[in-house]
Amino acid sequence: MKYARLSKEQFEELHKEFINFLASQTITSQEWEDIKKNKPEVAEQELDVFSDLVWEGVLNKVEYIEHVSPQQIHLFHLKDENMHLIAIKIKNPIDLTTTDGFNWLRENLMDDDVEFLQANKGYTNDKNADKFKLIQQGGVITKGELYTYLNKLIN
User: Strand, helix or coil at 100?
Assistant: First the structure.
């Protein structure tokens, strides 16, 4: 498995797609029930392959990832050739993961306690694995509204 297995809830949400996936391998619902019962290791492999296909599709489309921690925000724009990062670091003990902390940041963007950093980073040989790693580290896929706003503000 290249990425991570989908959760039970994600499989339930993608039930129709999973049925189509099995059908593309000429596995009927009866055969699937038999595989789950008598060949659980094969069923596990099928779940893993499907999970990787879903992740690959998602990662191919993702353009923005945000990671918010109590003192920092990392905003990634995942371009074709590299990642562009806008990082915001807070020098005082405000928790940006709370509504009050985020509101403080909005009202005090140009405060001396707010530091902006930017960087470009190339991808490794596996661009989607790089994106997945950001998600595993707590990043969330977004539409990039905060990144776009801040990029216009500081550039």
Answer: helix
pLDDT digits (tens, 9 = 90+) for 129-150: 999 999 999 999 999 999 999 9
Structure tokens at 61: 């489309």
Sign of the dihedral through C-alpha 56, 117, 146, 67: positive
User: Comparing C-alpha atoms, which of 47, 81, 62, 50 is closest to residue 135?
Assistant: 62
Neighbours of 115 (CB within 10 A): 12
Q: Is there a contact between 148 and 108 (Cβ–Cβ < 8 Å)?
A: no
* Structure token pair of residue 67: 């990671």
- Give the model confidence (pLDDT) of 71-117 as tens digits: 999 999 999 999 999 999 999 889 999 999 999 999 998 899 999 99
Please, what is the angle between helix 40-61 and helix 127-136, to 10°?
100
Distance CA 10, CA 14 (A): 6
Q: Is the pTM of this model over 0.90?
A: no
